Predict the 3D structure of the following.
Amino acid sequence: MLPLILKGSALMTDKSSDLVQGTLDMLILKTLALEPMHGWGVAVRIEQISRGVFRVNAGSLFVAFQRLQRAGLIKGEWKATENNRRAKYYTLTEQGRKKLNSETREWERQVAAIARILEAS
Amino acid sequence: MPLLRTIADGLRSLFRQKRVDQELDEELHGFLEMAAEEKMKQGMHREEALRAVRLERGNPEVTKEIVRSAGWESFVETCWQDVRFAGRVLRKSPTFSTVAIVTLALGIGANTAVFGVVNALVLRPLPVERPNELVFLENARYGPGHSFPNYRDLRDRNHVFAGLVGYRIAPMEMETDTGAQRIWGYLATGNYFDILGVRPVLGRFFTQSEDVHPGASPYAVLSYNAWRSRFGADSSIIGKTIRLNRLPYTVMGVAPPDFQGTELFYWPEVWVPMMMQPRIESNPWLDNRNDWNTWVVGRLKPNISLAQAEADLNAIAREMARQYPDVNDGLQFKLAKPGLVGNMIGGPAKAFAFGVLILAALVLLAACTNLASMFTARATDRERDLAVRLAIGAGRGRVVRQVLTEALLLTLVGGGVGYLLAWFLSRVLSRWRAPMDFPVQFNVNPDCHVFLFALAGAVIAGALFGSAPAWRASRTDPNAALRGTSGVWRGGRFALRDLLVVTQVALCFVLVSASFLALRGLQQALQMNLGFQPQHVATAAFDLGLAGYSVERGRSFQQQALQAIQQLPGVQFAAYSNSVPLSIDQSATSVFPADKTDPRPSDSISVAYYQVSPAFFATMGTKLLAGREFTWHDNAESQQVAVVNLAFAKRVLQSDHAVDAVSKRFRGGGLAPFAEVIGVAEDGKYESLTESQQPAVFWSILQFYSSTTMLEVKSSLPATQMVPQIRQAISRLDPELPLYGVGSLEQMLGFAFFPTRTAATALGAFGILAIMLAATGINGLVSYAVSRRTHEIGIRMAIGARPAEVLRLVLGKTAALLAFGSLVGLALALAAGRVISSIVYETRPHDPLVLVCVWIGIALLGLFAAWAPARRALRVDPMVALRYE
């Protein structure tokens, strides 16, 4: 077999509005702040709360899970779902909670600044 | 913490790949199932729902690939894939791989071995405390030596040293179970071990307070090697007595294994306090300001620069010159790195080592160009393979990585083998004792620096020869390659390969001519006039001072020994002297022209001197140009006489012709105000083969007694047969007396020829390497040309080309490249020749014979290397060739 690497970038675009770079992580943290949840749950929750503006595909979501887990912000654990299916539930760690708070504050600060600029014109 | 977790998690993915994959698979599967259930709740069929989910959320296989390649471990994984693939590719062409690995092993091995020597001699600090604070004191006039009173003054008056130690290399006679043996040790001042900061492995070291009164400190410190080899590592040795020069010394301690004193080339067996000098050497000089016998090493105080230290020393030097103008006039100090007797040995040794390192680097460079051209050729053959990969979506970066991985794999394997070779070589070298009486030994065992050097060499070599083909690979046009149009020999395409071949031939030309120049230099050095005929002369030496003989007893013993030797069968002439030219023991003295009435040190002329018996010149085969040899009447009762060489006659006596010098007088020697010249001998070499013509004076040993005695015996028999007879004759006179330096005079000259032989061996080895590289390189080039053009040759033969035309087709370009490369090499060799002639004596940088020989040699080599592939071209069967592809 020849070692090959597929150019993956083309498959990573989300169908609906593209998420601003880095915000997916924050959305996941926010969703998990409410309660521990599995991958599909996180995806549904983000779509519901955003009223369908964001749609998350599996690739982006699982890469984000891996990234957040390695950064120590979330923890994964296998559990049974309400439908008696096995699923990996992700929980926010203490570090993750702190990160979410600081990210949120930073986000609000930036949004407010952008809003002021847009209103000024 | 996140970094640790990232690494741990990545490692888990690498080593538990199956489990991690399963987990991801299960998680993803669950995700898609749940998504499908959602769709099914809205009334879709299961199949339909699953398909919709795949469209919306992404294909699971692709998703897995994305997740897998997101972590750092995927880089490792692809590298590992590359390595395995490279391994398979290289296994498929074993000839190429073997040639490449052997080439690299030789190239990297040679570099590593040479670097190991440089590392040991120049870079590695001495195994003492804070070695960078140590400096070696040099005397601008007398080189490394200082008089002991001067040392004392410096020690007591300076403000810049935490301590100054004085020491001297000294032979002594030690009594062992098998009789007396001459061993080599150090005389060292009491503060020696303290200041150097060395800890004993056993017992303790002598101190300053135990080295105060001459003759009152009979203590000895053994080297670790001596303790093990002579005393069987006996731990109860401390406090026991050993006998040196027939006097008892108490063993105080044992030095650590890595400490061999401050001279890197000299491995002493014993250290004795300096105050014992009069008991160790026959002439006491501790209170003589004009005996420049002490070497001095100092430890600088913290934050004192070399310049500050030199300024302080030279201020003291001016004081000392005022105090003792007769001996210290013009005294001046310089500081040097310790380890190689300052610049006396250090200068040329370092220059030589770096010179050889440059040659070694050239060999590696030649090896790299060689491999680069072979590798490029292979990459061209694999164009189609690369094109396929590019076409199905591999990134160009990835293709480059693959080619580089192949190159690196080769160099790492080659480098590993090379390192082993170098390791083995330096082991042998470290154990090797130069075949002379003096314990010259180097510890060039490789340390981690040498390993890192080899590794760096391998990686750089890989990057060097891998980059050219990688660059070509990255520019592969998949379209053209797959259509097969780029497989045709196109002029422009091969410019890079041509350049590589020219570089390689040029480098080989330089290396081969360098080694030929060196070998020819050695050959000429061996034939040059030394001022004596070493053939058929046997020597044996003994030291009557060490053996406790008084001057009178010594004198009569020397004459008895000579008479006994003269009666041996086959002996033509026999004589004795304090030393012979070109041996390690050389002395110089100051003489003055007779017309200087108030001689000052600045008027003196430094000349080599020997104390010789009658018949010395006849025995040594030194021609007397005028006058006569010494006779038994030139003794203490008669007036002071001397035989001088022609250079002495010219410089000191202002006589251009030997005859004019006879009966002239000069000041020197010290027995009488003047010495009278009774004979003039031909010029010779005294200290080294490379010296310019030095004046030398020979005194009559009957007038100037020397307890160090070297017998020279000229006979019709070979020296090897003479030696046992000489031993017997001496032992009949004194069975206890240890002999050293026993053998032929030619053997003893090994010391003088040592630098030239070393240089010639090293350069010769590089020359052979270069020849091998050139041969494989040219062979590879022609083989490749033939295999690429088999098709074309077939067509040409089918339409009636004659063999000569086919040969021209195949060899034409090779010959042109060879000629051009040789021209470039010739220019480089002319430039390099000057460097080589400064290292190897008697080398003429522009020796036309050598250059022409190399040129012819390279041409013949080229033809020879091209012969096999060219024959293959002639045997091409047009039918087979045309069906090919």
About this structure: Helices of chain A lie at 23-34, 39-49, 58-70, 94-120. Chain A touches chain B through 33 residues (CB under 8 Å). The radius of gyration of chain A is 17 Å. Chain A is about 50% helix and 15% strand.
